[in-house]
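Comment thread on ticket #2218

A.B. wrote:
> Attaching the input chain for the structure job we discussed in standup.
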Amino acid sequence: MTEKPDLVIRNGNVIDGTGGKSYLADIGIKNGLISEIGSNIQTGKEEIDAEDRVVTPGFIDVHTHYDAQVTWSNRITPSSWNGVTTVLIGNCGVGFAPCKPHQRDQLVELMEGVEDIPEPVLTEGLPWNWETFEEYLDVLTNKNFDLDVITQVPHAALRVYVMGDRGVSREEATQTDRQEMARLAAQAIESGAFGFSTSRTINHRTVAGAYTPTLGAAEQELMEIGKAVGKTGKGWLQVISDFDDPLKEMDLLKRMAEISKRPMTITVLQRDDRPELWRETMADIRKANLGGNHIVGQVLTRPTGVMLGFEISLNPFMACRAWQEIEELPHPEKMKYLSRPSFRLRMLTEPQGEHIMRSRVMAWDKIFPLGDPPDYEPSPEFSIAAQAKMKGMPPDELAYDFLLKNNGKNILYRPLSNYSYGNLDAVADMMEDPHSLVGLGDGGAHVGILSDASAMTYMITHWTRDRTRGRKVKLPWAIKRLTSDNAATLGLTDRGMIKIGKKADLNVINYEHLKINPPEVRYDLPAGGKRMVQTIEGYDATILSGHIVARHGKPTEFLPGKLVRSS
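C.D. wrote:
> Ran it. Output below, let me know if you need it in another format.
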């Protein structure tokens, strides 16, 4: 008789990540790998009864910002709550390695502005026991997690490391600068990074308003780095850009992909000011791929948007002087003021000052109560403007009174992109394009304004089960998008499918009861920093390398997750 399996998942409805039909089977796991699939598998040392449950590969999230969190925490939440077993960090050209000691404040300021991670959290939490990217990888190698971590080398950190203040002020790199950045990028990938990331969007700024160091980086700089990355034969290139001049920008990125001969992923979103531009971008990507490139648009499963509330970073009244007098107070102290009729009158009547987000957070026809479960595809009649008109009251008063309820913890939702026409039909088109990947959840970032790590679960709940305002997708197809498609593009050949010999990263899901809960604020970051998170119901078990790391949303004692280096 063969040796007992370590774990057997019995009677599951297996959706294997290939996109094929589901089937009933048992899964045996031994030494962290899938050892058997079928029936009559002998009793394991441990068993999970998966009758009436869906069994899938663990999800692979290709766009997160846990670059800091992985240095101070073993549990990479909220992504690990969402069935994610592998995360890619270092996106959008920002991160913390390489970094010389005197440059630390510059990278913290950049991450605080670009990804909304508060400076006190980073200052207290980051151990800074590295300088080079290779040393950063060594630090992560010595840690254990509840999921696996893979990395990218970020362009902004490279630029600051090599050029110092000249890099921060976006001066053009010299030949020596370019050669050194290229050498370090290639060295990082040879040491284990899965790619190189850069940002070319004006939306990425420090808190003080300075643009990210990589904005407008010259073509020669990008080409030399791309060529050096290409020589390693490993990794991909991750890019975010505004595409204000789409033909010129796509031509540049196509040349970078050509010279590197590596896969490239480009953020694709629907902009309100140019709602059909994303279709042009995807068409250009298809043309580039016909020419021999491998470029994919990276898309989100729902709108990119912000949450508005009195306990979090943004609210419709934040440009009001009355709010600015209390915004630094602890939430219970704020509530004492916000509940007073006299203070409410000030908030509603005093002139608003200047704020970069003011016009967006007071667009009442595009702001909605989030609800429970959260509604990320709300109908126009549920907007604050429509509800206020129906009630015969000013929209700002309705918004104020709504946010004050539930002890000031209620949340409004403002979709910013992917919602130009008031529905998610464009997102359906994006996801179904064969030249796209699902990502952009930004887990670990924007902790005071959104919680989009749950967009992985939303792919299942909304798109395969709950959607009522348009077409749905098949569950096996959705699982393929969250697993094998991402694994294949990254070159992760050991995971992403349920097959014998593959890594035993699996989810056991109560599909009918899978639910995303409303966002809540927790004060569990270093320095008592706050973040918004969403808990998830319906994951009976998440299994990583054959170990159950979570049962019914509760962590177990196992932390088998590791830094995975490119090979």
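A.B. wrote:
> Thanks. Noting for the ticket: The longest helix spans residues 175-191.
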